[in-house]
Write a structure and sequence with these properties.
Shape of chain A: elongated
Number of helices of chain B: 10
Low-confidence stretches of chain B: none
Strand content of chain A: under 5%
Helix content of chain A: over 70%
Distance between the termini of chain B: 51 Å
Helix content of chain B: 40-55%
Structural class of chain B: alpha+beta
Oligomer: heterodimer
Number of strands of chain B: 14
Largest interface: A-B, 47 and 39 residues
Shape of chain B: rod-shaped
Low-confidence stretches of chain A: 86-94
Distance between the termini of chain A: 21 Å
Mean pLDDT of chain B: 86
Chain lengths: 94, 489
């Protein structure tokens, strides 16, 4: 079990880095398309959408820890209202 | 070395949920088609939901235990259920064996012409009992296996379900939801199995009173076999017809001497007994069982005794032999040809009765105010001397006299034809032997089979309900991570 946990933790860290990398890539491609001198409006619009999606993704990526912290708080308060003492701690994000 | 603990599984589940969240966001932010972005968004959302599930594991376990406690059931009821069912299943087997062992005893009281058909009935009864025993045994085994597994491993199933649910991409979502639903639904529902099954058994017992005789669902009832003496104030050489009314159905018994007996099982309550001498009703009484019952073994009457032994030894029923003598005051019966019935305010004294080679003679006196009726049967040459009584009616076989103060009567009958016992107006009911065959070789084995079917149907219908519950619950759990997310494009 610890092997699988270590494996998954490693994969998790890599995925976080990948996610940030993909955000940067998409943001760059988006700006490149938007700012290019190619007179095709559809291309410029898709570039705009890419920028927006990338920014939203970056927002939720950075909120990741907060989201999971909120989830564990919510679970904790539900447990308390039911009358349970034990909680499960969320591992820290990379 | 593998260390499978709840904590490690849950932390793995939460890590997988977070992995799914970030992977989903990576897919969403990538310059890929819309469907992939939508999938990514769904995966991220599902990561949050599965993290919540994993965090709520302890709460779920606690809530389930709390729910069970508040519903007022517990797993401790199941062992006694297993015991009672397995005892009954083995009793059915023992009944089948007992019937085969009792076969010679039953054959002893059977006339030869009935032996072939009774053999067929007996074989069917034994087959039904063996089938019933097998059915119950199999159902019980399935319940024991499932219950033992769920009791020991339900939390493990729950953990596995949460873990599978957390796998990114929804790969294990449906299987995980099914495992969670199975664990929770079975753990909560299985303690209700004994009550559910007893509903079916009680319904079977209500429809068929013989089922209650086998008394598995509830306390074995005590049932009664009735016999007794018909006791007019004076009697000699007379045969009576006794009619027992139960549930609107008449059972008829012709007395052996003055002893009547009914090979019919009676529940506690009121039964009506009528006594006839031919067409003359001489008694009509209500008997309350068990109040009026005097526990007393009947004298050796073959069918009655065989029935009692089969019921108590083979079918382990709670049956008592109940003596209820029917006293008939102010009535005198002689030689199956003469019946004297006095009103309630008339005292009857019979001073002598003789039977001299077919000539019957009776001397009686009466005191009081009322009516004395003299019945004679049938076709006799009757010579009647009446003193100090007026004749109110004198027809074939019936003489009605008015008593005012004191009177006497001398009655002589000769050359009589058939007696009262050949002139019973009460028809119907069944012979004691056919009652025995019907009850012991058909009704009881069929009732046992019905009971076993009720148990089996109860168990398998319970499984059906539980499966429906699991399916519904797993559908709800499986869909909870899939809201409609509108991706603007």
């Amino acid at each position: 079990m610890p092997d699988i946990v270590t494996l998954v933790n490693e994969a998790f860290k890599r995925v976080v880095m990948l996610a940030w990398g993909v955000f940067l890539l998409t943001w760059s491609i988006g700006w490149a398309l938007r700012g290019s001198p190619i007179p095709i409006m559809r291309l410029k619009r898709s570039g705009q959408h890419m920028i927006e999606d990338a920014v939203w993704a970056a927002f939720w990526l950075s909120m990741g820890s907060t989201v999971f912290w909120l989830i564990s708080m919510l679970a904790g308060s539900i447990s308390q209202s039911v009358g349970v003492n034990a909680t499960v701690t969320t591992p820290a994000t990379g | 070395m593998l260390d499978i603990s709840a904590g490690s599984i849950l932390s793995l589940a939460i890590t997988l949920s977070m992995l799914g969240y970030y992977l989903g966001l990576a897919l969403f932010s990538a310059p890929l088609p819309m469907s992939v972005k939508r999938f990514g968004l769904r995966m991220a959302y599902q990561g949050g939901v599965s993290a919540l599930f994993a965090s709520l594991y302890t709460t779920i376990v606690y809530s389930v235990e709390l729910l069970l406690a508040s519903l007022g059931v517990s797993w401790s009821t199941l062992p006694s259920f297993y015991t009672s069912v397995s005892i009954f299943a083995s009793e059915l087997y023992a009944m089948a064996a007992g019937l085969l062992t009792a076969k010679p005893m039953i054959y002893k009281i059977l006339p030869n012409e009935l032996k072939a058909s009774v053999d067929l009935v007996l074989r069917t009864a034994v087959q039904n009992l063996l089938k019933a025993s097998t059915l119950m045994g199999l159902s019980l085994a399935s319940v024991e296996v499932v219950a033992a597994f769920i009791y020991k491993y339900w939390t493990l199933l729950l953990l596995l379900g949460i873990l599978l649910y957390s796998i990114p991409g929804g790969i294990g979502r449906k299987v995980g939801a099914s495992l969670v639903a199975t664990a929770i639904v079975l753990y909560v529902a299985l303690p209700f199995l004994p009550s559910w099954v007893s509903l079916w058994v009680d319904a079977a017992a209500e429809q068929n009173p013989v089922v209650a005789l086998l008394g598995v669902a509830r306390e074995k009832p005590t049932l009664y076999l009735l016999w007794g003496h018909v006791m007019p104030e004076y009697h000699s050489g007379h045969v009576y017809t006794v009619v027992l009314w139960r549930g609107g159905v008449p059972y008829v018994s012709k007395t052996s001497g003055i002893i009547y007996w009914f090979p019919v099982l009676l529940s506690p309550g009121a039964v009506r007994l009528e006594v006839y001498s031919g067409y003359v009703k001489i008694a009509d009484t209500i008997v309350l069982l068990p109040d009026a019952c005097v526990e007393h073994e009947s004298p050796k009457i073959d069918v009655f005794t065989v029935l009692y032994l089969l019921l108590t030894q083979v079918f382990k029923a709670n049956v008592k032999q109940c003596r209820v003598d029917i006293r008939v005051p102010r009535v005198a019966t002689f030689f199956d040809h003469i019946v004297l019935v006095a009103d309630k305010d008339v005292k009857l004294f019979v001073t002598g009765w003789r039977d001299e080679g077919g000539v019957y003679e009776v001397e009686a006196s009466v005191r009081g105010q009322g009516v004395l009726t003299v019945y004679t049967c049938c076709g006799c040459n009757a010579t009647i001397h009446v003193d100090s009584m007026d004749v109110l009616e004198n027809s074939e076989g019936k003489l009605v006299l008015r008593v005012t103060g004191y009177g006497s009567l001398n009655l002589t009958l000769a050359n009589c034809g058939s007696g009262f016992s050949d002139r019973s107006v009460v028809k119907g009911g069944s012979s004691p032997l056919s009652s025995l065959i019907a009850l012991v070789l058909h009704d009881i084995p069929l009732a046992a089979y019905t009971l076993a079917l009720a148990y089996t149907t109860g168990v398998w219908s319970f499984y059906g309900l539980v499966l429906a519950g699991i399916y519904g619950f797993s559908r709800v759990l499986g869909e909870v991570g899939l809201p409609i997310i509108r991706v603007r494009y």
